[in-house]
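Human:
Care to share another protein and its fold?

Assistant:
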Amino acid sequence: MQLPRPQSKKSLSGWIIGGVVCAALVWIAFFDSHSLLRRYQWHQEKTQLSTENEALREEIRHLRRQVDRPLTDSLVERIAREEYGMKRPGETVYRLKSIE
C-alpha cells in the first residue's frame, strides 16, 4: 500500500500564483475602470459620434453651397417672405402650420 505523497511547496506556490493571476485577469476584465464592458461602451459611443460627425459635415457642406451661390432678386424676395415674414404693400399673408 502506498501512502499519499505530500504536496511539495513548489506545486502549492504554483497554484497560488496561478490563482492570483486568474483573479487579476477577472478584475481587469470586469471591474477595472478600463474593463471590457467599458471598452465596448466607448466603442459604441465612438461609432455614434462618428456618424453624427459625418451628418454635421454634410450639413456644413450644404450650408456652404447655399452661402456661395449668387443672390438673385427673386431669391432674396423668397428668403425675405419665408424666413422673415415680409410682404408687399396691400398683400395679405396666411401662414399655415403643419401638424407633426
Q: What stands out?
A: The first helix runs from residue 9 to 31.
